[in-house]
Amino acid sequence: xxxxxxxxxxxxxxxxxxxxxxxxxxxxxxxxxxxxxxxxxxxxxxxxxxxxxxxxxxxxxxxxxxxxxxxxxxxxxxxxxxxxxxxxxxxxxxxxxxxxxxxxxxxxxxxxxxxxxxxxxxxxxxxxxxxxxxxxxxxxxxxxxxxxxxxxxxxxxxxxxxxxxxxxxxxxxxxxxxxxxxxxxxxxxxxxxxxxxxxxxxxxxxxxxxxxxxxxxxxxxxxxxxxxxxxxxxxxxxxxxxxxxxxxxxxxxxxxxxxxxxxxxxxxxxxxxxxxxxxxxxxxxxxxxxxxxxxxxxxxxxxxxxxxxxxxxxxxxxxxxxxxxxxxxxxxxxxxxxxxxxxxxxxxxxxxxxxxxxxxxxxxxxxxxxxxxxxxxxxxxxxxxxxxxxxxxxxxxxxxxxxxxxxxxxxxxxxxxxxxxxxxxxxxxxxxxxxxxxxxxxxxxxxxxxxxxxxxxxxxxxxxxxxxxxxxxxxxxxxxxxxxxxxxxxxxxxxxxxx
Amino acid sequence: xxxxxxxxxxxxxxxxxxxxxxxxxxxxxxxxxxxxxxxxxxxxxxxxxxxxxxxxxxxxxxxxxxxxxxxxxxxxxxxxxxxxxxxxxxxxxxxxxxxxxxxxxxxxxxxxxxxxxxxxxxxxxxxxxxxxxxxxxxxxxxxxxxxxxxxxxxxxxxxxxxxxxxxxxxxxxxxxxxxxxxxxxxxxxxxxxxxxxxxxxxxxxxxxxxxxxxxxxxxxxxxxxxxxxxxxxxxxxxxxxxxxxxxxxxxxxxxxxxxxxxxxxxxxxxxxxxxxxxxxxxxxxxxxxxxxxxxxxxxxxxxxxxxxxxxxxxxxxxxxxxxxxxxxxxxxxxxxxxxxxxxxxxxxxxxxxxxxxxxxxxxxxxxxxxxxxxxxxxxxxxxxxxxxxxxxxxxxxxxxxxxxxxxxxxxxxxxxxxxxxxxxxxxxxxxxxxxxxxxxxxxxxxxx
Amino acid sequence: xxxxxxxxxxxxxxxxxxxxxxxxxxxxxxxxxxxxxxxxxxxxxxxxxxxxxxxxxxxxxxxxxxxxxxxxxxxxxxxxxxxxxxxxxxxxxxxxxxxxxxxxxxxxxxxxxxxxxxxxxxxxx
Lengths: 499, 448, 125
Ligand SMILES: Cc1ncc(COP(=O)(O)O)c(C=O)c1O
Fold this sequence. Notes:
The complex is a heterotrimer.
Chain A: H1 57-68, H2 91-97, H3 100-103, H4 115-132, E1 136-138, H5 144-161, E2 168-172, H6 178-185, E3 189-193, H7 203-209, E4 214-220, H8 232-241, E5 245-250, E6 269-272, E7 292-294, E8 306-310, E9 313-317, H9 336-372, E10 388-390, H10 402-411, E11 418-419, E12 429-431, H11 439-457, H12 461-466, H13 478-483, H14 492-498
Parallel strand pairs in A: 2-3, 2-4, 4-5, 5-6
Antiparallel strand pairs in A: 1-7, 6-7, 8-9, 10-12, 11-12
Helix pairs in contact in A: 2-9, 4-9, 5-6, 9-11
Chain B: H1 8-18, H2 23-26, H3 48-60, H4 83-89, H5 92-95, H6 107-124, E1 128-129, H7 136-151, E2 155-158, H8 164-177, E3 180-183, E4 202-208, H9 220-228, E5 232-237, E6 256-260, E7 276-280, E8 293-297, E9 303-307, H10 314-317, H11 330-367, E10 373-374, E11 382-386, H12 391-400, E12 407-408, H13 409-412, E13 422-426, H14 433-447
Helix pairs in contact in B: 4-11, 6-11, 7-8
Chain C: E1 5-6, E2 11-16, E3 19-24, H1 26-32, E4 35-39, E5 46-47, E6 52-58, E7 62-66, E8 71-76, H2 79-82, H3 86-89, E9 98-102, H4 114-124
Antiparallel strand pairs in C: 1-2, 2-3, 3-9, 4-6, 5-8, 6-7, 8-9
């Protein structure tokens, strides 16, 4: 890499931390003078400096602009991160959420003053229940994992109500980490169910694991191998016959929205990630929204609060007199900002467009699979759903790993796929192109992947090990970072003291 | 469909490459009985203008902090957000990126989160902070779970002054997480002793300051009592702007500090998404929930940042993880960080001062109304009024006059009759003298 | 040949009287990759055969270290807290984890000697 005297490299600017640009007396705001009243703080006035840096607005705008330029994003390119559904985020959604009637509404205003907000939540709930074919939905969970928690708590409340103290939740090996983590949070013992040779849940193993102690199975469908669980109706029967509930992880709903309703598959509870299927932005890690749809036997136990249509208006039920609801999971009513965006997205597509979303997503993933399957090993034959899974078998003896391929993709201008997940195959590469990628863009991606495999096979392992060569940063030493964690910036004098 | 690039010709050509005759061939694994042949019963696609009109019509039905005299608080606050905050968070590179799993192409998000963690640690007076939780209430529940792990005890003591939504959230996690709760009932007439509730099974005491009625609390003695009993002190702050003026919980001995960060950078937005701030001491860092960003160096020795200590998290530790959280509040944390950096030390403490003075003006003005009393001896930017009538009725009557006057405490805790006449009133830098005039006039009218 | 005995979970134990020193095998440290953190039990804790005695972490994985036999922890290798890399550099020496007073010497009978362990590893491939 050519060194420059500034440290900048073309459009990639070196940018120090905010704290390293601090100058006393600088500020990015002009506030009115205080009157100088005597405080009513009971002697609890802050004594020392906080340590916040002083910068002006132009410096701050430049700082965050430069930082943004060091991020890959959907807006800049295909983002094939499997299980994450990195689709285009329409800007209409952003405009709608900023309408002052939504943005400036307070969650504790009298309900008669926020009928528009309640109508929006109720309308979105109607779209969700119709698309999923389920009788009820709890809107408040803040993300997928929070929806899982709401779903399992609802199940546990329903079981408790019938005097049933089951203690085990079954989770397939291929499950996302949030599934077992959520079950543990609900104080359930987690039992793992293996996958069969077709990458689906092994129904015989499921039957063998069933007992009076099983509260639920948590099954992702389409699953994390990108496959539809073709024996799902039988799975539902096995569970229901044994008095257990069927939790569906709906993170992959994008493959089936408008084409398959989870309510027709025997599912009792399922979260949707509005930040996946319904295009609300991921924002570098959040926020999300994870409404959880519920079957008839579970609806009475749903969390608080919820909205009901009442006469000509809407009402938010915040306290439950029946004693059935399992309670509250967060402050206020849910991720309203995500609701507005998701509804704008749904209304834009309509029932007809949402079907096409699923179909084009599935088409793109199968197209990638078809184009790559001779070069990359497909552990489970297709057709796949909205994402396709490869393992690292084809890389055997090249000295190149899944991680190396990922870093090579960065040099080629693509964000890497999901790697090393799911755990059921070795060196997993999970690719989800999404429906908002054009054929040209998917083709370019496939050409690149084929080129990388050729390069690996041609004995170019050293190049891979050094990759990325062209990204703003080279490979970062995560081992050293974890051995001596530095989690906050400290002024020089304090660093000296600590050493 | 404006968001779908494929033409029918593209679809046909791609099916050809796949070797499928139709799209339905790709859905062969779906039980035939469950595959829908026609669209579900919902409206069909619409253009931008139609969607915009429909949603604007809903938004227009709301009274809000944008068009009404406004004094509502209790966990979400109306503050002015500088224009550059929204312009910057809408940069697509921030808005449309995922969790920074690939550090070489995510340094923007990672550096920002490192700055966020540092600022949160500074504000709370703690050593470390994570990269955010969903909100203050769920963060509080996570803090209790963490205290249980650290102390290997299973009983949490909750202060009566804790926001009822926070208390209910912790209670929910407790009911299903198999630990005990000892909750105080909110006493409007004084700050209650919490130390007497600590026993040898107590993992933590959770206390909010300013509390749900706006009262400030010195935590020093309580922290000592906790530590003497081998328990942790969890401090909760629902109005983060207060930390510009008030001694941070970390300096009073708190072991975990949880804040609702909405006030900085984030709109009230009818309840979410918000951003939970979560900070603790270095020695407890491996028991923390959520993502952490740490400093690292690349192979050319350039400083950068990575996600670190990930073995605590669900994607690695699965059922033994410290939390199930995955998606957090990244973009809200960005808004928080930008707003706070625009303020800087002088701006943030100045903003806190303006809030405190606005509340003082409001308290003085409203206390002058016949039959109305301010209960607080101390407060930051919200305080509690005792009214001569049930507060819920008063708030509704004010709303009929187009005034959003405050929160009746009975809405949050309907089962506590001692609270029925109490209304919490918040004022911020946005509160104008005209708004206060309108509220005072309307309240007088409603009460007479 | 050392007197080191191995478990199927890739821990080793070396006896001195009734005190056994326990660590992870060279094969185990290789599988783990660069160790970044080690969580050790308190002294005095009773550990049970084939149950968790310690945790060892790399950047992307966390694994339990199971005790090959039951006993009481009498010493832990504090130096691993500051320098976990010793597990990689010298797994059979400086990278030891804990010392326990073994409850029941007959539990040692079920373990493998060096030769048997090498054969066991060969079969795993
Ligand atoms: C299959 C699956 N389940 C659950 C989750 C968790 O969702 P969230 O990140 O919204 O909490 C994810 C997200 O990555 C997922 O892919």
